[in-house]
Known about the structure:
The protein is of the alpha+beta class. The chain contains 17 helices and 19 strands. A hairpin with a 2-residue loop joins strand 6 (about 170) and strand 7 (about 175-180). Helix 15 runs antiparallel to helix 16 (about 490-505).
Amino acid sequence: MNRQTRLLSALGTGVLLTALSACGGDDGGSAGNANPDNANAPSDAGSSQPWILGTTDPIVSTDPAGAYDIGSWNLQFSIYEQLLTIPAGGDTPAADAAESCEYDDPSTVTCILRADNTFSNGNDLTSSDVKFSFERNIAIANPNGASSLLGSIIDPDSETPRLAEGAIETPDDTTVVFNLNKPDLTFTKVLSTAATSIVDEETFPADELMASDQVVGSGPYALTQYIEQQQAVLEANPEYLGTRSGKANQVIVKLYTDPTSLRSDIGTSQVDVAWRTLSPTDLADLGSTDGLSLLEGEGSEFRYWVWYLKNPNPKQLAVRQAAASLMDRDEITQDAYDGTTSPAYSIVPPGFAGQKESFKEAYGDAPDPAAAEKLLADAGITTPVPLTLAFPPDKYGPNSVDEANIFAAQLNDSGLFDVTVEDDQYAEYQNLYREGAYDLYMLGWYPDFLDADNYLSPFIRDGGFFANGYSDDEVNDLLDAELGETDETARNGQFEELQDLVARDIPVLPSWNGKNVAVATEGMSGVEDTLDATYIFRIWDISKE
């Protein structure tokens, strides 16, 4: 990846930061004393100039119990510590708030915390805060949150979500012992996700979300200003003594609802880095612009469609299988994404151990209208089958509308379906799809951690995190088995079998896989290194010369 753009002048930076700060007025939340007017002032906390990240990824919540999306998580990674972290370019968890987390056996993990841990407000971070953070996330069970990742410590017999008794022991201030309800060899990877971010039990409420402009963490940056749908201001945390110290004393995350505006601002150096989401055409144009660099890294992005099986038509297996027989992934990747994505024939991306293109094996790599018609006829289903297909135009970039319309046309042109396309803003979209407003709806996925299970368990265990009504005992048993399997060959075989079951039942329909891409101005360092398959945007590793 490269980086070649004219430097933003000190005057231009100061004017922009002042303007950004002013747009919230008295209504904008402020949890600190960010001073954009003095953005270029030197700081002992960071050696780099302040810089600006532009993104169209919305922030659902800065509270770790309230979000399970890439925009929120990447802000949270900078504000909070987790017990473990994934270094740039790696796939193995390393020390963060914990010096170590080790398996005593496949069902027991012991973590030893750093003795010097403090939150940005000066409060000590101890094992009690760790237990509080996990227990709180599970109890709140926010529908937009990621408490589902903590299934190995949730009481399976409780009518309301709660931490299982004895699941977390804290024998002293620096020791945390996790007693899992089943063998789970992915649990130390879960400990590196934003779902396990550590919050201050003296500051955060135990039973509700913290206001997004008031959160406190122990990470390399403190959130000093947050204006919803506009910007977040991060300043280097002077209390931070871990391994992820921020290179810049201040970073502003500017939030865009319109990718056209983001494209304009990176093109004129009003932001220093544009990461997610610009169209393939815009990326190509910007990459050939003097002073800008198009940076590309290994990706594991996954786009897919979810069936809401509680609705009458999606509930019928033949309807789902017929749609799978009609999907033309080559047309979607070429016409909607200019060939910058690759067709996906499994919910597990290529490159992961145990990956198998089960959908290609079951339905071929080209649409088959005759097979689709036979499936519906054999099931006695009257055609055309009415379906509501939906996507969020503000979430996945400008080309998502093309994908939705192309896929709808593929189904309609067969004469077997009568598809209506709907779109809603993502904040409302999340609620609507869980309520069954759509029969078939678009979602995207970026891994919580690099393991094939992370493309399986969150999707197909008892309705998945999107609660679409799918459940299968054979699938659940296989998921339990692979989580505790220590033999790599046997585990890969279990992964393959699970992918075959997904292709048989089709609770979700894979569409494409993509790469991790950003555009940066001249003088930015560290951007290319963080564009790896984890999709963690490591703000702390990036600097502006």
